[in-house]
Amino acid sequence: MNKLDAQRQKEIQQAEELLFAGPQALGFAKGLFQGHFVADWVMPYPRIREAEKAELDHTLAELRKFLNADLDPAEIDRQADIPRTVIDGLGRIGVLGMTAPKEYGGRGFSQMANCMVLEEIGRRCASTSVFVNAHHSIGIRALLLFGTREQKQKWLPKLVTGEQLGAFALTEKEAGSDAANVQMQARPSEDGLHFILNGEKRYITNAAIARELTVMARTPVPGSNKTAVTAFLVTPDMPGFEMLEARMPKTGIKGTATGRFALRDVKVPKENILGPIGKGLKVALTVLDFGRTTFGACCTGAAKTCLELAVAHANSRRQFNKTLGEFELVKKKIARIAADAYAMEAMTTITASFIDRGLEDYMLETAMLKVFTTERLWECINDVFQIYGGSAYFTDLPLERMLRDARINQIGEGANEVLTSFIALVGMRGPGMEFKEIYDTMMKPSRDGMSKAWAAGKNRLSATVRAPGVPVQSEQLRAHARQLGRLIRHFNFAVNRALITYREPILDMQLVQERIANAAMDLFASTCVLSRIDGEIQFTGRNGNAASPDHSAADLFLRQSFRRIRGFLAGLTDNDDKAVIAVAKSCLTSETAKPAS
Ligand SMILES: Cc1cc2nc3c(=O)[nH]c(=O)nc-3n(C[C@H](O)[C@H](O)[C@H](O)COP(=O)(O)OP(=O)(O)OC[C@H]3O[C@@H](n4cnc5c(N)ncnc54)[C@H](O)[C@@H]3O)c2cc1C
User: Fold this and answer.
1) Could you check whether the bond before residue 468 is cis, i.e. omega within 30 degrees of 0?
2) Cα 174 to averaged position of ligand 1 atoms, centre (Å)
């Protein structure tokens, strides 16, 4: 086996281990790739449980009051630090243990409620929302999800109040996007009571201020010469823990402490292992599902701030004897921000509800939420920046900070390119397997194979002849629902065609994958928007409210999203991919590209 084949084998094995172990549940996103509309995942639009509503409203009111009085995002950016008073305040309100069970001192809130809290913080200060995410969404998440009762009793009470802080340490020099390539080693001690950890981690939010770090390291797989990743609970007072750089200077979210540390023969008791030995990557990905949901919430909050800022300036600034808002090219930007903010909230709420309902396997949806909301937010900030013109460039306004802060979103917790490829490949796996069944049987007919291939063929065919039903309640949404159903059928047809045309090489064809993933993301976003409008109309009707809420921004989102989907699918057959690849190849191999000797 040559080196390339061996690498591909390793990647396939890791992907299988991470994603495809066990039976596959047909979630919403996977359903789209099969031409189905898995309605019960997304309809009716989820609402906060009555039992939690009053407590959540009270918490949100308290939080808003605190943030308005005590949070100064500009000062946090200038000082490159979040003051302890802010951390203590957030701890007092319960934000730092929002979803932790009450028995350990947490607030026991749902993920939907938690997202509303994060949206509120994301509206004001990205440093603070990233800090909260690093601590609560990912830092203590492995402990919450995989910790034993003893571990939780020991660690959680101080972490959920913010008396102690948490961090999540996966990234290393050789393990960035290639997260499975963790090099930090953990070998068992001779007495079998400890693991000895060695290696370095970098770019870790909260590393220098955390008392509990969830650290990923490689442990030996018994009976083989292989290793697998395991999650450990590490504390900075363990001998051999060395903080190499507490606060790496950076572009944005300057208030967060992003650090680099080394573990040199650090003895970690085996009681500090989180989750099963050798299943650390699964632990990490499950943790990131939560992080990506709150990412969506923070982006939603920031997008709403963009809208407020855009409207305020467009109404007050006059040029050519008109307010800026009177110009169509400014109107266009404002309308798009309003449409996107509506969609981002809907998508966040629905994705969070998957976690609350304990549904199985929503990794695709959380990846879609992360990519979609971070890309849309970047557009929103760029648009509002443009509306403010030269004034946006100066530090007395929040826009240059917002721009710097937002840039990390497309990189952190999985670079958007990596997630985009992941969405397409995992999504296509279901129909791909059915085609493989058919193909294998044609090549080597057998009785058993024929019946499986027949079932697979029927499934593929029925999804392409019929558009799935999209069951909205409100009469006025039926046309949109029918259009969405037709687009899902069109999408399924395009996925099938891509699989048949390209077969295995599609695994490396990222330009094709990107269009498929983008179409899938817009289908999911449109579904969430439709579900949310439907829910709002029904709710208003049930409460005898005559005035229907204004859904013009939501309606615009659907129109624009449907148009984008058609564009992505058309691009599968009408594109410049060959030329793109050729130009890049020429640049990458030209003499000027070679490093000077
Ligand atoms: C401010 C900040 C805070 C962070 N906090 C944490 C934390 O708390 N915990 C933690 O563990 N990590 C953290 N990270 C690390 C973060 O998750 C990584 O930076 C991210 O996963 C990307 O890894 P990388 O930087 O090594 O980029 P690389 O892996 O070198 O990738 C660089 C670029 O190459 C492209 N690329 C890479 N792979 C592919 C591919 N397969 N297909 C197409 N394009 C590709 C992408 O455009 C990507 O942006 C943080 C990073 C920053 C900057």
Assistant:
1) no
2) 11
323-334 tens-digit pLDDT: 999 999 999 999
Q: What's the CA-to-centroid distance between 326 and ligand 1, angstroms? A: 41
**How many other CB atoms are found less than 10 A from the CB of residue 592?**
6
CA–centroid distance, 247 to ligand 1, in Å, is 18
CA-to-CA distance for 507 and 503, rounded, in angstroms?
Answer: 8
Q: Whose CA is nearest to atom 47 of ligand 1?
A: 417
> Considering 119, 345, 413, 437, which one is annotated as catalytic?
413
Of 160, 180, 161, 162, whose CA–CA distance to 170 is shortest?
A: 180
Of 245, 418, 510, 580, which is best to mutate to test ligand 1, by the most ligand atoms within 8 angstroms of its C-beta? 418
For this structure, is 413 an active site residue?
yes
The finding on whether 412 has its CB within 6 A of some atom of ligand 1 is: yes
The residue whose CA has the least distance to atom 44 of ligand 1 is 417
197 membership: H or E segment, kind and range: strand 194-205
Joined together, the tokens standing for residue 378 give: 């970047």
Q: Specify the ligand 1 atom closest to the Cα of 167.
A: 8
Supply the pTM of this predicted model. 0.94
Q: Is the CB of 171 under 6 A from ligand 1?
A: yes
- The ligand 1 atom at the shortest distance from the C-alpha of residue 201 is 11
Q: For 464-514, what is each residue's pLDDT tens digit?
A: 778 999 999 999 999 999 999 999 999 999 999 999 999 889 999 999 999
* Cα-based distances in Å from 125 to 111, 119, 271: 20, 10, 37
28 token code pair: 């919403």
Q: How far, in Å, are 69, 139, 258, 428, 510 from residue 247 at the CA level?
A: 27, 17, 5, 41, 35
The answer to whether 510 and 417 have CB atoms below 8 angstroms apart is: yes
CA nearest to 73, candidates 124, 119, 121: 124
Yes or no: say if 138 and 292 are a contact pair by the CB < 8 Å rule. Answer: no
Closest CA to 112 of 417, 410, 347, 375: 347
3-state secondary structure (DSSP) of residue 350 = helix
Q: How far apart are CA 127 and CA 187, in angstroms?
A: 36
Contact 248, 80 (CB under 8 A): no
